[in-house]
Design brief:
mainly alpha, 0% strand
Length: 112
């Protein structure tokens, strides 16, 4: 039973690594941005890449038992998505457009 957990953790890490490599990195010789720009848009989506990478990794964890494989496939993809959310910095929204600031000031003026 412990080996299954170890295999599952390794599969989640592998799915995260494959997803991150294809969706967010340049790869060796800057090949991956060329693939992403040549119509292979699925490679630009971390969630898509990690979902498809998780399918064969689920075989590594549970073998050919169909129901176990299907659940493990989604669990690995979900774990990779959670790991991605945990490792990505939160984005910040900065308003630099003067029109947006002016509209906000006008709406504050009307509320007063």
């Amino acid at each position: 039973m412990d080996a299954v957990w170890l295999r599952f953790v390794m599969a989640v890490l592998a799915a995260w690594r494959i997803g991150h490599l294809f969706a967010r990195e340049n790869g060796p010789w800057n090949v991956l941005p060329l693939l992403r720009g040549s119509g292979m848009r699925l490679l630009a989506c971390f969630y898509c890449v990690s979902l498809w990478a998780a399918a064969p990794l689920a075989l590594f964890v549970v073998g050919l038992r169909l129901i176990d494989w299907a659940v493990c496939w989604l669990a690995i993809a979900g774990g990779a998505a959670l790991l991605d959310r945990a490792t990505n910095p939160a984005f910040q929204v900065e308003i630099e457009d003067e029109l947006l600031r002016q509209e906000r000031r006008n709406s504050e003026h009307h509320n007063a």
